[in-house]
Amino acid sequence: MVPHTSPPPLIWIPRFFFVVGIILLGYVAATLLDVSLHQAHQAFRFEYARQSQERGSPPAYNQSPNLPLARVRIGEPDRGKTQGRGAVSESPAWGRIEIASTGLSAMIEEGIDPETLQRGVGHIPGTALPGQPGNVALAGHRDTFFRRLRNIRKNDEIILETLDGSYHYRVDLTQVVTPRHMEILDGSDAEILTLVTCYPFSFVGPAPERFVVRAHRVHE
After folding, report:
1. Backbone angles phi, psi at 161, to 5 degrees
2. Class of 9-218 per CATH?
3. Maximum Cα–Cα distance for the chain, whole Å?
4. Distance (Å, whole) CA 26 – CA 21
5. What is the C-alpha end-to-end distance of the chain, expressed in Å?
6. How many CB atoms lie within 10 A of CB 172?
7. Do 167 and 215 meet the contact criterion of CB atoms below 8 Å apart?
8. Of the candidates 147, 164, 126, 135, the residue with the CA atom closest to the CA atom of residue 201
9. CA 148, 153, 154, 160 torsion: positive or negative?
10. Among residues 65, 97, 113, which one has the least CA distance to residue 194?
């Protein structure tokens, strides 16, 4: 009788990496599906609220609160957001950002905590809201929704849709700054828009810089 021998250890290495690869692909697919379903659900709630408002019914929810500006860091928990307001996932989107030149379309929610930015674009608390004088500041991840900002150019149009109407902005400039460059969130007497994401776009791990888009409102 031929004695039973175990396969050489090297035989298991390809199998191990194959299994790990399948698990990672499954995780990525599940994450993308979750983001897609969340965006669709928030878009439905937003459109329903807008149609209700057009019919003269009370809005299904209010615009986002104008919370005090904190020295925030993109992706860190936003403690001011969740106090007394329930889970982050239950907060409805109050608007949509559209940049036709880059193909970007995403719902905007209040806050920049990890869960909000994982599923959409976040409004930085304490900055202005569309239609108000000041700086409307939005943040997004460089590897999801704001990855398309790589292709944005000066004079491109950005549209923010809210329950109060649509607001059009024209890109003035893009710049790369350090995370300590907090003056990008400063207020303004004019109506401006600031988009912030991590940079470089292709960097693996926590990115060392921030990519900023600055635009001004145009009245049509």
Report:
1. -100, 130
2. mainly beta
3. 90
4. 9
5. 89
6. 13
7. no
8. 147
9. negative
10. 97
- Cα atoms in the 13 Å half-sphere on the side-chain side of 141: 17
Sign of CA dihedral 174, 179, 185, 186: negative
Whole-angstrom distance, CA of residue 214 vs CA of residue 135: 10
Q: Tell me the pLDDT tens digit for each residue of 55-104.
A: 776 554 444 444 444 334 444 444 434 333 333 334 588 999 999 999 99
| Complete DSSP assignment for 150-175 | GG--TT-EEEEEETTEEEEEEEEEEE
Task: Return the half-sphere exposure (C-beta side, CA atoms, 13 A cut-off) of residue 185.
Answer: 22
Distance, C-alpha 132 to centroid of its chain = 21
Sequence letter at residue 63: Q
Rounded to whole angstroms, the Cα distance separating 209 from 220 reads: 35
Angle at 89 between CA 67 and CA 194, to 5 degrees: 45
**Rounded percentage of the chain residues whose pLDDT exceeds 70:** 66
CA angle 148, 105, 44 (to 5 degrees): 155
Distance of CA 21 to CAs 16, 154, 170, 188, Å?
9, 40, 43, 49
**Residue 210: which H helix or E strand, with range?**
strand 209-218
Q: Give the tens place of pLDDT for each residue, 144-183.
A: 899 999 999 999 999 999 988 999 999 999 999 998 888 8
Q: What length does the chain have?
A: 220
Which amino acid does the sequence have at 54? E
How many Å apart are CA 52 and CA 46, to the nearest integer?
10
DSSP symbol at 206: S
